[in-house]
Structure to design on (466 residues):
């Protein structure tokens, strides 16, 4: 058996890992899209590094586009077998893949206008909405903590990863050459003190682990301070400066967490009296899905539900649907909060809001999650004097803020706690993926000090025999 790595290698996006069995069968773990990689993004997404028709089964850890976003392209190129996931992941991935197809269709029109001016041939989107629907039709749901057969001699079980609704760590039992090998894929590991979700679960002893490492060199601020920090930004921007607070937020997870905190402020009678706009049809639909899976909520939210039937709704909240309504926000002079996708500010409506508001010093761009360094959000974190948006230079006069406490990824304490159920002497190899290389080097050293002797940081398209 061997594993080949075709994404999220020394970077945090494009998760794709292939398990090769000795008899030639192949199992794909995740099929994510690369995002925010600059000029490299397009070619990385065009070429898998493997033949989709050679894949015999797919297991999906969760619905985020950097883990699910190339499933429609996989199907477009000939994959017609099962895609295994949890129930909430099935609901969310269906939404996200179709939304991704729509974004591509719109973006490619804009790109091709520029290419035409440069006498370059037009590009085609990676896939269509029909491809996304075809991929959704292959999704098969399984509950947590139950073993199921993926294919002959390969069983799988999901445990709660605590990252987003439906997120799972993937555990495989593989019968090969008269022995059983246990392989765990972490997916994305959440936090043990998440505001909404249950903590990551313990899992059976593994022989091999593929593990994310996004925050392998840092600790988050206390999540319990998030409500007060968010209140400070709303107060400073909207009440004192009379400006707009623009929050790039992933449609799944981050948006719902912000809404939950704002709802908490209303329950505590501390919510500033301004308008709050969620400007993303996808975020609206994703919030509905999150509401439909309360079984994933932690005990604190379960208690809130006893007195508040909707912990994501409060006075002054408006969901924006049409593009025309979104454009009208640009002409609004009154202070307000705009929560819009994408979280890295690399695409979607929030990029337009930033473009239209970044040169006004009354406004604030508040970054509330991880941003790939090359993305617009990643560039803004360095507080530049000027940034290019849609190919045009913009002077940065708006304040750039950050809330480190709101990451859905665990920090190194969370990741070490996730590993604490394992006997280090029995781990034959631990592969670090989904992290920047310098961060991975630091986390690998931390893991070695904890007793994990064989820590590997794979390169793109590399293969490792187990």
């Amino acid at each position: 058996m061997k594993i080949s790595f075709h994404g999220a290698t020394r970077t945090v996006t494009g998760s794709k890992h292939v398990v090769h069995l000795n008899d030639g069968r192949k199992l794909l773990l995740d099929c994510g899209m690369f995002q925010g990689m600059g000029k490299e993004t397009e070619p990385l997404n065009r070429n898998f590094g493997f033949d989709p028709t050679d894949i015999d089964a797919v297991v999906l850890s969760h619905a985020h586009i950097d883990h699910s976003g190339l499933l429609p392209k996989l199907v477009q190129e000939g994959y017609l077998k099962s895609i295994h996931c949890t129930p909430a992941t099935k609901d969310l991935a269906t939404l996200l893949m179709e939304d991704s197809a729509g974004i591509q269709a719109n973006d490619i029109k804009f790109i091709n206008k520029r290419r035409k001016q440069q006498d370059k041939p037009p590009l085609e989107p990676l896939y269509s909405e029909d491809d996304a629907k075809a991929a959704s039709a292959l999704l098969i749901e399984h509950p947590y903590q139950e073993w199921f057969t993926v294919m002959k001699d390969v069983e799988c079980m999901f445990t709660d990863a605590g990252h987003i609704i439906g997120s799972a760590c993937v555990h495989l039992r593989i019968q090969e050459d008269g022995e059983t090998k246990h392989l765990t894929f972490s997916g994305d590991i959440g936090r043990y003190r998440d505001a909404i979700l249950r903590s990551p679960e313990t899992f059976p002893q593994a022989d091999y682990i593929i593990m994310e490492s996004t925050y392998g060199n840092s600790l988050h601020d206390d999540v319990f301070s998030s409500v007060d920090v968010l209140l400070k930004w709303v107060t400073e921007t909207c009440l004192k400066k009379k400006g707009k607070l623009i929050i790039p937020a992933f449609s799944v997870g981050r948006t719902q967490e912000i809404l939950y905190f704002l709802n908490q402020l209303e329950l505590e009678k501390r919510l500033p009296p301004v308008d709050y706009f969620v400007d993303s049809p996808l975020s609206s639909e994703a919030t509905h899905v999150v509401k439909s899976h309360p079984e994933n909520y932690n005990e604190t939210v379960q208690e809130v539900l006893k007195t508040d039937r909707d912990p994501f709704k409060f006075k002054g909240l408006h969901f924006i649907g049409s593009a025309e309504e979104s454009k009208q926000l640009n002409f609004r002079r009154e202070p307000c909060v705009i929560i819009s996708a994408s979280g890295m500010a690399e695409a979607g409506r929030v990029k337009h809001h930033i473009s239209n508001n970044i040169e006004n010093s009354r406004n604030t761009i508040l970054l509330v999650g991880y941003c790939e360094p090359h993305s617009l959000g990643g560039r803004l974190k360095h507080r530049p004097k000027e940034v290019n948006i849609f190919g045009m230079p913009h002077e940065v006069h708006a304040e750039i803020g950050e809330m480190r406490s709101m990451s859905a990824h665990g920090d190194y304490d969370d990741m070490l706690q996730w590993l604490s159920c394992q006997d280090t002497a029995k781990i034959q190899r631990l592969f670090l993926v989904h992290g920047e290389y310098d961060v991975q080097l630091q986390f690998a050293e931390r893991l070695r000090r904890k007793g994990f002797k064989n820590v590997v940081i794979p390169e793109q398209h590399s293969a490792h025999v187990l």
